[in-house]
Amino acid sequence: MRSSRPAKSSASSRHARTHHRNCLFIDPRHSAIDFGLGTPWMCCKQVVNHGVGDEVVGAFRSAAAEFFAMPAEEKLPYYSDDLTKPFRVDTSTTYVLDRSGGGRYWRDYIQLQCFPVDRFSQDWPAEPAAFVPSLAAYATAVRTLAATLLGLIAEGLGLEESFFRGELSGGWTLMNVNWYPPCPDPSLTLGLLPHCDRPLLTVLSQGDVSGLQAKHKGRWIAVQPVPNAFVINFGHLMEIVTNGLLQSVEHRAVTNSSAARLSVVTIMLPDMDCRIEPAPALVTEGGQAKFRPFLFREFNEAYAAAAANREDVLQRFRIYPAGTME
């Protein structure tokens, strides 16, 4: 990817296209992101200058760490493997029944619905006392950031700024708060299995402890923490809607033996009955769509059946040219 500087605020400079030390800088006046779409573009970049206050991020991260530090009996009422619960605590991952027989992963996590805040805050824990107010502030700010990014991405693709609004991002806003304790032997297990996320994009706060890795050209590359940055990953739906121009990022979490790691992942999902298909304006290669239309609820079922495996998920929706093998 090309290296450049933050875009200047002027009518002649509409594109924010900065790639420097794994950072994607956004112009504060919301210029479009220039992807240079000559070839498929894979994104696992860190966004700074994003407008979410350090105190907002720090307050919720501290409250979440305090929650995980509480005695097990105080967290026990929240433990559940029922994916429909608006707030639950669990361990490892639901995607453990893979082809190898299913391993366990070195992770505890909270999964919660976080927006609209006034609808779901009653399901959040009363202790620690800072949890509810800090989560409310964080969820609101990060959802605003995600919506801004989607608008910038749409403009960078030559689409209307509002393209990703509505059904494509109007379903649940979910958050996974992941706690990776120090692991006595990191060679024995991962924190989380290799996977791609479901939605258009995810917004990740990874803190200052390394552990996130992204796959690039067959190699796992560490995504080192950048102070006050969010990691942005494109998900499966972004790859499908852009007809492969913006590719989903396979990533995983590794363990370490010396320090606990906390990450906060926020995703905006489509409505369950939202029709997903490549944007007509982006079907450019001979006018051929690479993916068939489907409803998001069908995609959810396929994602679970494939245990989040990138290729297994995508092949269920790919359109293969006549005469080719899958």
Walk me through the structure.
This protein has 326 residues and is an alpha+beta fold. The protein has one domain (40-314): Sandwich (Jelly Rolls), CATH 2.60.120. The protein is built from 7 helices and 17 strands. It has helices spanning 54-69, 72-75, 117-120, 131-156, 236-241, 296-305, 310-314; strands at residues 18-20, 23-25, 41-42, 44-48, 87-91, 108-115, 173-180, 192-195, 201-205, 212-216, 219-222, 230-234, 246-247, 251-253, 261-268, 275-276, 294-295. The strands form 4 sheets. The chain has a 9-stranded mixed sheet. Strand 10 (212-216) and strand 11 (219-222) form a beta hairpin. Helix 1 (54-69) packs across helix 4. The longest helix has 26 residues, at 131-156. It is globular, with a radius of gyration of 20 Å. The model is unreliable at 1-23 and 97-101 (pLDDT under 50).
